[in-house]
């Protein structure tokens, strides 16, 4: 009989991708995925360590898993912790939660089948936190599970940047890029399995420098040109990029490749040069603006989103105002902002001048309000226009379908079931803070190609 596997994913899209790969790896052992832990034979929490809240959530969820495990001793349940908390805390997890059977770091998933056999045999926790010589990608099986119409492909892992607030270089290790051949093969496979939108992933994705078919190192711009040639791909995105690694080749790709979507998530973290320096970002606010301008020159309709940290140690009111100014100057149309969270082992956690909680709260609120205003303003500019939307989720109401515009706006339509997993033109009839509403333009209403060309240039 098939065994049941429950995976819960926290954190970034890299973890989401890894969860799919773990599930594929465990299928030959007879594990089938289930969406609730109650009857699971194996539970894996694929964890995130980026902020304190994310890491603490894991322990409360582990407590729930222990209760399930203890409530049904007749069906043995294995509990595994994977991801960045596993890497950061290692054996401490087993000391704090002795009912955990497996601890596996993000670079060691290929060992999961062996670790499972080992823990069953020895009845003690099996732990693997190695950063192996041979990358996990070269040891994983090929993609076999569909990710639907919008799929992720990890092309790069790890980070060598060491921003002073960040755990990623410690939890994911040094930068590593998969070969161009590997990336293309996996992408083709996912397209065969139904993907029309591909998002290339990496902790620092534009630091990509994989070996190409010519034996030379390729950058992300060159890789995207090859990916764009794959039959059936209608949209390409990539995330998360670093402003210092946006090179001319990548900018040119934005200008030349229509299906490279005009929305870029380019974290800046702060608008204050003093804080950027203390963060070890190695760019100033004006360096960032230069990158934005070059991208806009290449692709005039491009929009930007970003990550921000408020209350980094030593951040004054003036520094914070610099961030607000930068948000306005760039005109970000989406943004994610976080209160600084001191992470064990990172230089910023040791600094004096930690900002008070009340100040953190107030700054976060102010920044989020400004970002929300800009987002809504941009959404309103789409009223009455036509946007292409890839519908890949059911909406909250019966018959509703939800999807994404080229600019990552959430768009929904009523009675949209027929458009599931399709890219369709939508006439926008409502624009709100976080979403757009519209009506699908039926094929008969659509202009013929000749008229469309006139409409486009007219
Ligand atoms: N590689 C990406 C993102 C890494 S983590 C980059 O270079 O920007 C995602 C976001 O979490 C970061 O952009 C940052 O804004 C936030 N973050 C990371 N460490 C944090 C910390 N210690 N406290 C608060 N936010 C943090
Ligand atoms: Fe973390 Fe991103 Fe900085 Fe790397 S570049 S250390 S992942 S914030
Ligand atoms: Fe979190 Fe690790 Fe991703 S810390 S954000 S899961 S790289």
Report on the structure:
The chain is of the alpha/beta class and 458 residues long. The protein has 14 helices and 21 strands. The chain has helices at 13-26, 52-71, 83-89, 91-96, 112-122, 168-171, 180-192, 220-228, 248-256, 273-278, 285-298, 317-330, 357-381, 449-457, and strands spanning 3-9, 31-33, 42-47, 78-82, 102-104, 126-128, 150-154, 156-157, 176-177, 197-201, 210-211, 217-218, 235-239, 263-265, 303-310, 334-339, 386-394, 401-404, 410-413, 423-431, 435-440. The strands form six sheets. Strands 2-1-3-4-5-6 form a six-stranded parallel β-sheet, with helices on both faces. Strands 17-18-19-21-20 form a five-stranded mixed β-barrel. Strands 7-10-13 form a three-stranded parallel β-sheet, with helices on both faces. α8 runs parallel beside α9 and α9 (248-256) runs parallel beside α11 (285-298). It starts with a strand and ends with a helix. The relative contact order is 0.07. The model is unreliable at 447-458 (pLDDT under 50). Bound molecules: S-adenosyl-L-homocysteine (SAH), iron/sulfur cluster and FE3-S4 cluster. Residues 159, 161-163, 166, 168-169, 203-204, 242 line the site of iron/sulfur cluster.
